[in-house]
Amino acid sequence: MAGPDKTLPDEALIVIDVQNDFCPGGALAVADGDAILPGINAAMADFTAVVLTQDWHPADHASFAENHPGAAPFSMTDMPYGSQVLWPRHCVQGSAGAEFHAALDTRRADLVIRKGFRPAIDSYSAFFENDRSTATGLDGYLRDRGINRLVLAGLATDFCVAFSALDAARLGYEVTVRMDLCRAIDLDGSLATMSDQMRAAGVRLS
């Protein structure tokens, strides 16, 4: 006899940027970034819908420090849409670094959202580019499926996960971030700052 169905029809798991360049050995590695993979794979069975996001940058992307002569990685610059961290080159379209980590069970994904493919604007959130208005299409997909509760996991807690969670809360979703299934960059205290912002927005950190 089969056990009870734990999935809820209005709840989705959003797995953020579990890609080679964000895992140990990658161009923008998050410490222990690969340690969350078994837990994420196991969690997928509890959800009706699973969405994966994927950073997908052109080589000339404006967020890469190497495309700003004299700029150091992790320094800041001003973009038309606001302040921007200048990152090491990472997740270039079609590269091995942009691929999902081999241990991630991508078979369970209902949708893959690629973001950051516009050369002039970065994209942390799964919902909007960093101008806070150019949509990725994820909100429409979730609405069409009748989903209003989200659980987020992935990389990195204080950037793409946090921005996704804040946007989701702003859009009216009930949002939980599985902190045990995330890892952070923690750039100049960014983990504490973004954790406080998520709590203030009503995001549950578990």
UniProtKB/TrEMBL annotation:
This protein's record includes keyword Hydrolase: yes
BP terms from Gene Ontology: pyridine nucleotide biosynthetic process
Q: Which domain of life is it from?
A: Bacteria
The keyword Lyase is annotated on this UniProt entry = no
Name residues in a coiled coil: none
Q: Could you say which EC number(s) this protein's record lists? A: 3.5.1.19
**UniProt keyword annotations, A-Z:** Hydrolase, Metal-binding, Pyridine nucleotide biosynthesis
InterPro entries named among the record's database cross-references:
Isochorismatase-like_dom, Isochorismatase-like_sf, Isochorismatase_Nicotinamidase
Task: Tell me the route in metabolism or biology where this protein functions.
Answer: Cofactor biosynthesis; nicotinate biosynthesis; nicotinate from nicotinamide: step 1/1
GO MF term set: metal ion binding; nicotinamidase activity
From the Swiss-Prot or TrEMBL record, give the protein name.
Nicotinamidase
The beginning of the lineage is:
Bacteria, Pseudomonadati, Pseudomonadota, Alphaproteobacteria, Rhodobacterales
The gene from which this protein is expressed is pncA
